């Protein structure tokens, strides 16, 4: 039997009105999203990485850590549906099968998987690498076979726009829809025209990601409704304001100006939680890099 939150998400989608889902990442943001009357919420992987673990969104958070955070936020939200980021599924199709079971048991209403290669990175950062379309279709097959409640929806995200262009991103989105994904998420379109093309050319319910300072231009709710988008997620809306508050308080306590610390785009935000240092470590251990003896 499905949960009340999953049934509610289906009802909202059937109403054909845009679902606006703020990004949440802990018990407090979940509770406040429910108490302020939001219809749904989005468990942001970037927010969990940064706020929960002090890490950038480059594939460092594990499946078990994300599941525990999802379970916490589901409790806080009650009957409000949670759409939950699950990165690449944390491995091969057999790992995806376990991920689906864990997310389903945690009570999420929709699980989001993407076609990046591991380790993934934030969709609004450069140099993303993808798995093949066929490989990701096998991931979708694993989800469809593994879930025991069809009420838990699958959001399939393609990151092809950056490395391969919009035409390939649209082609992949339609392929993933045909394979059984319930909602399609073309990450990081870079203009209003690109957003309109996605709406016109992807034959499936659509999700749009609006990141503060990201690659996708802001869109009004009215415009997204006109284009037929089913869901708009705002993963950084809450996290960005929270970060500003923390930085302001800390700088006031030290008597220093906050301006030099304030990020204006995702890369700058992730550098606040060590992305440059992690990238340097990653480069140190790249193939062909000799360790000093």
Tell me what you see in this structure:
The structure is a single chain. The protein is of the alpha/beta class. It has a single domain, classed as TIM Barrel, CATH 3.20.20.60. Helices cover about 50% and strands about 10% of the residues. It has 13 helices and eight strands. It has an eight-stranded parallel beta barrel, surrounded by nine helices. Helix 5 (about 95-105) packs across helix 6. The termini are far apart. The mean pLDDT is about 95.
What is the N-to-C succession of helices and strands? Answer: HEHEHHEHEHEHHEHEHEHHH
**What is the radius of gyration?**
19 Å
- Euclidean distance between termini CA atoms: 59 Å
Binned, the helix content reads 40-55%
The CATH topology label is TIM Barrel
Shape: globular
Low-pLDDT stretches are none
How many structural domains does the protein architecture include? 1
Indicate the proportion of strand residues. Answer: 5-15%
Pfam families: PEP_mutase
Protein name: Carboxyvinyl-carboxyphosphonate phosphorylmutase
GO molecular function: oxo-acid-lyase activity
InterPro entries: ICL/PEPM, Isocitrate_lyase_ph_CS, Pyrv/PenolPyrv_kinase-like_dom, Pyrv_kinase-like_dom_sf
């Amino acid at each position: 039997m499905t949960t009340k939150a999953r049934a509610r998400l289906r009802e909202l989608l059937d109403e054909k009105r845009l679902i606006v889902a703020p990004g949440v990442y802990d018990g407090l943001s979940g509770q406040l999203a429910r108490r302020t009357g939001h219809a749904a919420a989005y468990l942001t992987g970037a927010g969990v990485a940064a706020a929960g673990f002090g890490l950038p969104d480059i594939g460092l958070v594990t499946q078990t850590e994300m599941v525990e955070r999802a379970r916490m936020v589901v409790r806080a939200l009650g009957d409000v549906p949670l759409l939950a980021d699950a990165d690449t599924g944390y491995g091969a199709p057999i790992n995806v099968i376990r991920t689906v079971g864990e997310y389903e048991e945690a009570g999420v209403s929709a699980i989001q998987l993407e076609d990046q290669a591991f380790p993934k990175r934030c969709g609004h950062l450069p140099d993303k690498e993808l798995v093949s379309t066929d490989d990701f279709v096998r991931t979708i097959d694993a989800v469809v076979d593994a879930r025991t409640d069809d009420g838990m929806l699958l959001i399939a995200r393609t990151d092809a726009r950056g490395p391969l262009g919009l035409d390939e991103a649209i082609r992949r989105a339609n392929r993933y829809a045909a394979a059984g994904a319930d909602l399609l998420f073309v990450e990081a379109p870079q203009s209003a025209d690109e957003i309109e093309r996605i709406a016109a050319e992807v034959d499936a319910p659509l999700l749009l990601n609006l990141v503060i300072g990201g690659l996708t231009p802001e869109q009004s709710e009215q415009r997204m409704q006109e284009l037929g988008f089913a869901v708009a997620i705002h993963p950084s809306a809450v996290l960005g304001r929270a970060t500003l508050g923390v930085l302001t308080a800390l700088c006031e306590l030290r008597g220093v100006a906050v301006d030099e610390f304030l990020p204006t785009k995702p890369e700058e935000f992730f550098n606040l939680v060590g992305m440059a240092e992690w990238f340097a470590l990653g480069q140190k251990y790249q193939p062909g890099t000799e360790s000093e003896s």
